[in-house]
Design goal:
It is built from 10 helices and 7 strands. By secondary structure, the chain is an alpha/beta fold. The chain has one domain: 3-Layer(aba) Sandwich (Rossmann fold). A 5-stranded parallel beta sheet has the order 4-3-5-6-7. A hairpin with a 5-residue loop joins strand 1 and strand 2. The termini are close together. The N terminus is likely disordered.
């Protein structure tokens, strides 16, 4: 069973004595305005690494970003999705791409899949968190909203503390900035030894077609909840 982090009145501390109160049901204001103004239509830009590029899904058209519209259409929502994934890219690379990509796509919502390659490179989670904060600042300055997708889980990193710390740090940044975080790491980890293989491609690293489909459903659920449409788990 795929799950998402709690989205109502989350209280988190992020390395300081300050505590942040966050109601994620109000976290997509630009998206909500676009939907109201354009009869359910809004622009989505998905940025990330190989998962966003469709590796393991069988091609870009089968990647999770392109599977989000069918999840949302029954709710009268019509997302126009553009996805640009770069295999092996880390958070800093996505940050460098963001300004130009956003100027070209003018999104209402940015979905940022981040952290897997940073964790594999054993980068400092605090440095990655600062990079994500800078990216979110750019997104918000462009009057767009953000959703984060944290790292995937796969057998080779089971029990590796640095990988879990990266996922936890990304989740904490999202909570502190009042940004929905799709907790892919926890969802895949908790699928167990029987469920996890079906979520992974033959390389046992990238997501399988089923993994892409379930991630799209998880993202769609997070969007619906943040818009106040449905928060069923």
């Amino acid at each position: 069973m795929w799950r998402v982090i709690p989205v109502l009145a989350a209280l988190w501390s992020i390395g300081t004595s300050q505590v942040f109160a966050c109601d994620l049901s109000q976290s997509l204001p630009n998206t909500a305005r676009a939907i109201a103004a354009h009869d359910g239509m809004f622009r989505v830009f998905a940025i990330g690494s190989s998962s966003t590029g469709g590796v393991g899904a069988g091609g870009k058209e089968a990647a999770y970003p392109q599977q989000i519209p069918p999840v949302l259409r029954p709710w009268g929502l019509i997302p126009d999705v553009t996805a640009r994934g770069v295999g092996g890219e880390r958070a800093a690379g996505a940050l460098r791409r963001l300004p130009r990509a956003m100027a070209q796509t003018r999104p209402d919502l940015v979905i940022w899949q981040v952290g897997t390659n940073d964790a594999n490179a054993r980068l400092d989670p605090d440095d990655v968190a600062r990079t994500i904060r800078s990216g979110v600042a750019l997104i918000r300055a462009a009057e767009a909203d953000a959703i984060l997708v944290d790292p995937q889980f796969y057998p080779r990193i089971a029990g590796k503390a640095h990988y879990a710390r990266m996922a936890e740090r990304i989740d904490a940044v999202g909570a502190a900035l009042c940004i929905p975080v799709v907790d892919r790491y926890e969802a895949m980890r908790d699928s167990g030894p029987e469920g996890l293989p079906s979520l992974l491609a033959k390389d046992r690293f990238h997501m399988s077609p089923r993994g892409h489909r379930l991630l799209a459903e998880q993202i769609g659920q997070e969007i619906l909840c943040a818009l106040g449409r449905s928060c069923g788990r």
